[in-house]
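My current task is to audit a protein record that another person submitted. Thanks in advance; the entry in question is below:
***
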Amino acid sequence: MANVGTRLVRDSRVLSRHRVSAFLAALSFATVAFAQQDSEPESAEAFLRRGMSRFEAGDLDGALVDFDRVVQLNPRNGSAYTVRGHVRAAMGASREAIQDFDRALSLDPGLVDAYLGRADARRSLDDRKGAIQDYDAILALEPRNLSALCGRGSALEEKGDLDGAIADYARAIEIDPLDSRSRELRGDARRRKGDLEGAVADYAAILTLDPRNLSALCGRGSALAEKGDLDGAIADYARAIEIDPRDSWPRELRGDARRGKGDLEGAIADYTASIEIDPSRPGAYLSRAEALVDRGDLDAAIVDCDRAVELDPVRATSYSSRGMIRAENGDLEGAISDQTRAIEIDPANADFYAVRGELRHRAGDLEGAVADHRRALEIAPEARWAEKVRGKLARAEDELRARR
């Protein structure tokens, strides 16, 4: 299923592209605003228009050059810094973008889009507190600003405040009942909270207005799958695939549901189709690897994990998954090595320590096993596996005392 963090944070570059496109479209006032400046207003407008065209064509480097000139020619115009900040954010330069938004707001504290851009950039750097402060500032200026309500809701959700997030999404829906984005976000948050009926209702409301909405179909399918209605989930994913056969995500989701029903061949076929459409996504390889393990094809599963590692060498779950498969295939040394790498990437993940502790125990490294089990329980004493790990820790300690 979809990684929650991916859905929440999304790609800051995508956010910024959307934001700058909307902002540039709103700059129909540009001729007037920039003409009011004393230094070469016509040249500034020309750079602005060419930068807009370059941005829309995907030429971010060219757009940045043009907006640099706009800033040079209009150093006291907050909108100039705001536009350049959005382009920098779209290029992944979040810190530089924040500097531009800071400058814009120092010149004009009422620039709502500068607050929005800075909030997006701060979230991309995991500065949720700062992002929420920006959204609060926007809502003080414009209490009915849907982007700020949804943005603040998403930041609260990232912090784990699902109730606060749902309240913000509900306010956005109250302001505009036809806004599908706020309903989708509330559906996602309700699903995370375990309110599957509420989530299904939100996605269904979107589909009543827009029956071809792929996000709502996939969201409802995921909620139905979590409810245990795998047939209903598969039907939603199939409809999404019918609407857009070139979208890899519904195929991967349908693969998950088919695997849940025990249809391994159907699941593997869906994962393979997803990979053929978009071979750059590590998750599809890991999902297919799990299905291949279920089928007993461990060597092929390891190959898929290898590919996932190649695509994203700092994705901890790829190493952990490969390590568990290697262990099942009899390669304890390789399995422990993979779990160690996963821990190096994500040292706060208790699951990785619990798995490595079990592997070290099997390999005869009782000291290492005891240390890993203890660390796992320190990080997550209430985890679903905690009691089982406590039992394994006790056995490892007993064996270690007997050995001494």
Remarks:
- The chain is about 80% helix and 0% strand.
- The radius of gyration is 25 Å.
